[in-house]
Design a protein that fits this description.
The structure is a homodimer. By secondary structure, chain A is of the alpha+beta class. Helices cover 53% and strands 16% of the residues of chain A. Chain A binds a DNA duplex through helix 2 and helix 3.
DNA sequence: AGATATATATCACTTTATGACATATGTAAT
DNA sequence: ATTACATATGTCATAAAGTGATATATATCT
């Protein structure tokens, strides 16, 4: 997702789909969580299928911060860094979700009709 | 998805999540389609957000054939190569869908509760 | 005949993801 | 107080995945 300024100054959002890993992490950051907790949440939610290791986790967090889709929510605990979605981050996640749902509908409709 | 043979000979499926692109293409192959048609379907379904170019398309088709998740459905037309999910492919897609839905639920529940 | 849309394919390059490792703190048991 | 383990963050080199540009050929339309 990048924000492009049109000639007339109106903001238009040029949409790009999130990668899987970015989506998972942002999905977890609708409420304040720190990296380690996000890793566990994703693993639990996916029944152990999706595992985001520390390398992926902290690489992606850095990227999301840079985009300003998440922010450092509470640095009070020096050991745990807690993050949360920004307003822009929520918008990006919502837009992504919309497309993800469309693709899932396509797959589910197709499987149903192929009589599985 | 890889199939692992247990000591007792029972088949157990060790699950791995599909990449986005693999998922999109497999979602399109619940009915017979050729590469070019898949590209268009994905672009249309996603309202132009997701674009799979020929490089990605044919690279991934090759990979899916190798895994035997799709097969060459009808080579009658020498110009168009039509593909379809195999039984194994359907299973993989269904399993993937299950996890995708769980992650989407997490995101939607979170967004809702964050009062957006 | 020329232009455009359809259709498949490959190559070199970029982007993204990750295993292995390093570091440090909290917590529980001996 | 020491060992051991879970928690927690971080980096680096490499692997995996994705893609823009380009090439080739056929079909369709004017």
């Amino acid at each position: 997702m990048t924000y492009v300024m049109k000639k007339d100054g109106e903001n238009l959002t040029k949409t790009e789909q999130l990668t899987d890993s970015m989506f998972y992490i942002m999905a977890a950051l609708t409420e304040p969580r720190h990296g380690y907790a996000i890793m566990n949440l994703i693993e639990e939610t996916s029944e152990g299928v999706i595992k985001i290791g520390p390398a992926s986790m902290y690489t992606i967090i850095k990227k999301l911060l840079k985009q300003e889709w998440i922010y450092l929510y509470d640095g009070s605990d020096s050991r745990r860094k807690t993050y949360l979605l920004t307003g822009k981050g929520k918008e990006v996640l919502e837009q992504d979700l919309k497309i993800r749902n469309k693709m899932i509908d396509l797959a589910m409709k197709g499987l149903k009709e192929s009589g599985k």
